Amino acid sequence: MTEQITYAAAGVDVEAGDKAVELMKASVRRATRPEVLGGLGGFAGMFDATAIARMDRPVLATSTDGVGTKVAIAQALDIHDTIGFDLVGMVVDDIVVCGAEPLFMTDYIACGKVVPERIAAIVGGIARACEQARVALVGGETAEHPGLLDPDEYDCAGAATGVVEYADILSPDRIREGDVILGLASSGLHSNGYSLVRRVIAHAGWALDREVAEFGRTLGEELLTPTRVYAADLVDLLRDPSVVAGGGVHGLSHVTGGGLAANLARVLPQGLHARVDRATWTPPAVFATVQSLGNVPQSDIERTLNQGVGFVALVPADAVGATTAFLDARGIATWVMGQVHDADRAPIDAGHEVIHGAKGVDGGSVQLVGVHR
After folding, report:
1. Which residue in 269, 283, 318, 330 has its CB near the most CB atoms, within 10 A?
2. Reduced to 3 states, what is the DSSP secondary structure of residue 149?
3. What InterPro entries is this protein classified in (predicted)?
4. pLDDT at 5 > cutoff 90
5. 40-47 long-range contacts, Cβ below 8 Å, gap at least 24?
6. Count of structural domains, the chain
7. Residue 288 lies inside a defined structural domain of this protein
8. Per-residue pLDDT reduced to its tens digit, 181-209
9. SS3 category, 264
10. What pTM was estimated for this model as a whole?
11. Average pLDDT, integer, range 221-241
């Protein structure tokens, strides 16, 4: 008799997937907004666009991203309830850069085997981060890929949509000579550069459970620190009356892959140059540790890791005080790190690289000068 081959025999457990959905329901219910229609389990997430329709000229903004190889740290430590903050931060914080308010998000998790409790932990983290960002988690998908991924392996990605009035878009033409460059502290490595970080610690022979005095905790705990999610605070900053009275925010940059200089250059218009002084801040210990362990060149570390700066705001001088006060009150350390100059008159320090544009954007230029204090 010919053997019967079932879906379960092929490695896909439909019942485990259903159990995972049941376990995540409570978390997802909290990550909502009044505009969300329907509930978990529909074929599509629905969002009432009535408020958008009342805008003068609504412009939708969208972004998609993943977590990268940071998931390998979560898997090695068997801790899965924080990786969602990395996913949400990478997606919704990109949307805020253009001045848009993120509205809703969907996620996708591919795994070698559905372990309901693990999937629920991942989605629970995504939901908590969405709740913090005031973004609705309107749907998602978990796919079991036996034979393609090992049973304990998974990867996740997400996409989000936001909206902004056309007149309020933070385009490069808002940025002016004399604008002040503010650094917003990161929570650590965030979710970029982990291929380098993992290679360095493997080369050094460091285990994830190694206690590191400079961190005040284990290496694994430091590496798994969740990405700071800035979205809700920055949306509120753009609308804050005291900030607007000082001239408002002229530009924002999310410091992700490519590092500080490259991402700042992406939002500058041609003809402007940003001069950033490293002496204005001290990167957290994890950055110096990675650089020292791997003998990583300065230029490479700055192109790979955020060096303690998760976001940059460009504001007129009259808005600096209100902006820093607002963000400090939200628990985001903020400091003046430089200024925007006319490119033809900008002071250029010999021996320091000048970055011109990045990721296909032919924008302005950026130079990091000095040394960290």
Report:
1. 283
2. strand
3. PurM-like_C_dom (IPR010918), PurM-like_C_sf (IPR036676), PurM-like_N (IPR016188), PurM-like_N_sf (IPR036921), PurM_cligase (IPR004733)
4. no
5. 40/139, 42/139, 44/139, 45/104, 45/106, 45/136, 45/138, 45/139, 46/138, 47/103, 47/104, 47/136, 47/138
6. 2
7. yes
8. 999 999 999 999 999 999 999 999 999 99
9. helix
10. 0.93
11. 98
